[in-house]
TrEMBL record, chain A:
Species this protein is from: Caenorhabditis nigoni
Assigned protein family: Belongs to the SKP1 family.
Keyword tags: Ubl conjugation pathway
Region described as Disordered: 1-25, 160-188
Domain of life where this protein originates: Eukaryota
Gene name per UniProt: Cnig_chr_III.g8742
Amino acid composition bias (Basic and acidic residues), ranges on this chain: 165-177
Record's compositionally biased regions (Low complexity): 8-25, 178-188
GO biological process: protein ubiquitination; ubiquitin-dependent protein catabolic process
Domain SKP1 component dimerisation: from-to ranges: 127-170
Protein name listed in UniProt: Skp1-related protein
Domain SKP1 component POZ: 38-96
Known function: Probable essential component of SCF (SKP1-CUL1-F-box protein) E3 ubiquitin-protein ligase complexes, which mediate the ubiquitination and subsequent proteasomal degradation of target proteins. Regulates cell proliferation during embryonic and larval development.
Pfam families per the UniProt record, alphabetical: Skp1 (PF01466), Skp1_POZ (PF03931)
Species classification: Eukaryota, Metazoa, Ecdysozoa, Nematoda, Chromadorea
UniProtKB/TrEMBL annotation, chain B:
Alphabetical list of PANTHER family matching this protein: CYCLIN-RELATED F-BOX FAMILY, F-BOX ASSOCIATED DOMAIN-CONTAINING PROTEIN-RELATED
InterPro entries: F-box_dom, F-box_Sdz-33, Zygotic_Embryogenesis-Asso
Name of the gene: Cnig_chr_V.g21580
Naturally occurring in which organism (per UniProt): Caenorhabditis nigoni
Annotated ranges, domain F-box: 2-53
Protein name as it appears in the record: F-box domain-containing protein
Segments traversing the membrane: none
Amino acid sequence: MSSTEQGTSSAAPAEPTTAPESAAAPEVPESFYYVHGKDKVVHKVSAGALQHSALIHGMISNLGYTEEQAKANPFPFENIDGDILQMVVDWCNQHKGKPTPPEDTNLPKQKEKLFDLVLAVNYLEIKELLTYCCKQVAMMVKGKSPEEIREIWMIPTDAEDEAAEKEAKKRAGKEAAGETAAAAGDAK
Amino acid sequence: MPINILSLPVKDLQYALDCMDLDDLLAFSLCSKRAKNLVKSSKVEVEKIYAEVDENRINLKISTSQLQKWIWYGKRIKFVLCEDFSIKFKRVDGFQKWENTEFTFNHLIAHFLSLSNTSMIRKLKIKNGNSIAYLDTVKQLIPKCQFLKISEECSREFTKIAFLKLSSIGEIVEIDNNPLDNENYISKLLSLNLKSVIFNDFVNPFKLTLDDLLGLNIARLTIASINITERELNRFLKLWMKSSHGFYRPEHISLLIRNGINRAEVLRGIKYQIVDNKHLLKRADGKELLIDIGLRYVIFKFRQ
């Protein structure tokens, strides 16, 4: 598990502790990068672990940061909650340089966390983890009746969908009328 | 705490759906129109829908397949409409009863037909019926099917009533049990305005007469097996040649004759041409009849 330091700003990260090395440590000294989420907590992650994320891997390749530069400029992911980013970092560390197993039992069991994790993982483009998460999402409704599925996955009924659509149309109509009135006012 | 799956990015949502088992996916498709459309656009095909009446229950069997890693996996999904009109859904670990569900059996049938892009159930089999009143329920629930089969397990009386009540719902109707204990009764069945009927009973052959053939109102008829004389078939052909009845609805009659048939006797006194080892009869009004006669069968193909 990687360690983090609370409250560190993205501009001047304090000394984060190093993520644990895997048993088979590489011979060449590994380079490290830094990421933080909405809570500004900075996570130090090895380049090997970050390879899981196509997005970060692409950023690293394009920027060509030195370790010092990377430390001074952690990658900001303001749209990802701190605890979710922590989960992602942990997963990347656990699976660094290892073939991904067909099942992953370490994923969060809390449904709301899982949902946020899917969004984060989708954004960070971590294909294997996304696969696990989507499987987990699918498992949530295994053996359930349509009414139960509707509740677990918050699926609106047709009547609710229709009402929402009507409301949206009404709002769009009002906005269009407002814009027309404003344009007419400007013309005067 | 629930999660709002429909707000997931489309790709992730589709991937989550692809991870689901077929029975879960079909349950999901029932949640709303949006859910149904998502399933329609996923790697799932609802191919054919079969229904089976077993006493006072209807089993709905849905033949589906799912694409997983470039291979299509087939699975048959089963619903049961119980005597008390409750619905049971077969899952991996047994039947799941849908208590106080908003879904009716009609709704399920319409839903899966819509998913399969077909307009009617492929096959309705009356496996083992005993309640005549229940046949009305069946007709109401399944107003149309491609193939209706009344199985040999049904009693004679039940078969007869089931045929009269339900034959209009099937494009092809097959009965596997000769329900007729009365020789004249077959005329009533044959005069029904139906597209295609197959009578199958090799143990108790049907009895067919000239009048039955003349009064036939079924477009395509197959009977296996029957007792009919060559003389009656010969008279039928002569009457047809003389155009004694201007409009004759049947297009195809195929008869398997229990005691064999003598071709020369059937065609005695009739003018015909040989075409591909078959006998072609031409009427003055231009209509034609192609006859194929074997040792135990005769097939009439009428050309307008």
